[in-house]
Specification:
alpha/beta, 13 strands, globular, binds iron/sulfur cluster
């Protein structure tokens, strides 16, 4: 069944302070939440679910703040109409996002009483120095405790990470990947850091203290992280911020790797990395000379074959054949053959007559 999100943004509500990179009002284009009355929420739910293709898994989502840390009367005001819709079978679920240090037993009991079944935690990094520099106000141990708490209360757990924060490096990103995989969340979102106007990060960028990732670097980080999590049976449901008019045309985005097609480019990069590491592992295990990659053509005459089922053609070959071009340009002495083969439902690479699942 298709998924239908009914989003409500509560920018910064419940946040004890503002993290260096965050300006939810600029990202969500919402400033006040006065309009979020029970009546408005009920009507919005009705409008969404009355759509023609209403055979969807409808979920009400409260994003943009620290939901479990907002005042109890406001939480109840927001949740009540969603809970009633859930009771009537009009929607199928309710989720919210919050901070790792705001998921005590009482808070989670309340969420459960109102039918919330999924909680997304803003984790951002599992390196304490990076968290401190981002003024998160919590540590990686708080994240570990929070995930345990959510499991104890039978919640579906989503974790959000932000590669490219001040102080991040391949080392800290790897550390985050390893620590998150140990926690085994149900899903992860990966948002490379953008520099949004009127944030502390914007000042740090202007003063030269902070240098954002390039689009290419962020695609490489995201591809690595996505493959890592998928290899650990953790779903990655998003890479890169969703495009909005404000990000596309407004004056909020000061710098950083914003790319509306990020998800697709990350997938292309994952396949490029898989093919290249298959190629490299083959050479490492079959040839003594590790430098052979650079003189491969002198040693090897058979072409390398990459086969893929039709439905994966664009992922494997890449957007506008970017992966095909990459291998042709990088390994000029090697012949690559790219072909569709629907006998397998997963891509394979054939080198020296050995078949490797990619
Ligand atoms: S990142 Fe999360 S906790 Fe920090 S200010 Fe933004 S919404 Fe609040």
């Amino acid at each position: 069944m298709k998924y239908g999100m009914i989003p409500f943004f509560i920018p910064h509500i419940g946040c004890p302070h503002v993290c260096t990179f965050c300006n939810q009002t600029r990202i969500t284009e919402r400033i006040s939440i006065d309009y979020l009355t029970s009546g408005y929420i009920a009507k919005t739910i009705e409008e969404y679910t009355a759509q023609k293709d209403k055979e969807k898994y409808w979920e009400v989502c409260f994003y943009g703040g620290s939901f479990s840390a907002i005042s109890i009367p406001l939480q109840e005001q927001l949740l009540q109409p969603a809970y009633e819709a859930l009771q009537r079978g009009v929607i199928d679920g309710i989720r919210c996002s919050t901070r790792p240090d705001a998921v005590g037993d009482d808070a989670l009991e309340r969420l459960k009483d109102y039918g919330v079944s999924t909680v997304e935690l803003g984790v951002q990094s599992m390196n304490d120095v990076v968290l401190h520099k981002a003024r998160r106000g919590h540590t990686s141990d708080d994240v570990r405790r929070a995930v345990k708490q959510l499991r104890k209360h039978s919640m579906t757990v989503g974790l959000q990470i932000l590669p490219g924060l001040l102080g991040d490096s391949w080392y800290t990103i790897l550390e985050t990947a390893i620590e998150i995989a140990k926690l085994q969340p149900d899903f992860v979102r990966i948002y490379p850091v953008l520099v949004i106007e009127h944030t502390e990060l914007a000042q740090q960028y202007r003063s030269g203290v902070y240098k954002p990732l390039s689009v290419q670097e962020s695609i490489a980080y995201c591809a690595f992280l996505k493959t890592w999590f998928e290899d650990h049976h953790i779903k990655v449901i998003r890479t890169g911020l969703q495009s909005t008019d404000e990000l596309d045309c407004g004056d909020s985005l000061l710098a950083g790797p914003y790319e509306p097609a990020m998800g697709e480019l990350v997938m292309n990069e994952q396949w490029r990395q898989r093919i290249e590491s298959c190629f490299q592992n083959h050479l490492d295990s079959w040839y003594d000379d590790k430098k052979i990659l650079h003189k491969y053509g002198n040693h090897y005459i058979q072409p390398i074959v990459i086969e893929y089922p039709r439905h994966m053609t664009s992922k494997v070959r890449g957007l506008k054949n970017c992966n095909v071009k990459y291998f042709d340009d990088r390994y000029k002495d090697v012949t690559f053959i790219w072909r569709e083969n629907n006998d397998n439902n997963w891509p394979i690479c054939i080198i020296d007559s050995i078949q490797y699942m990619l």
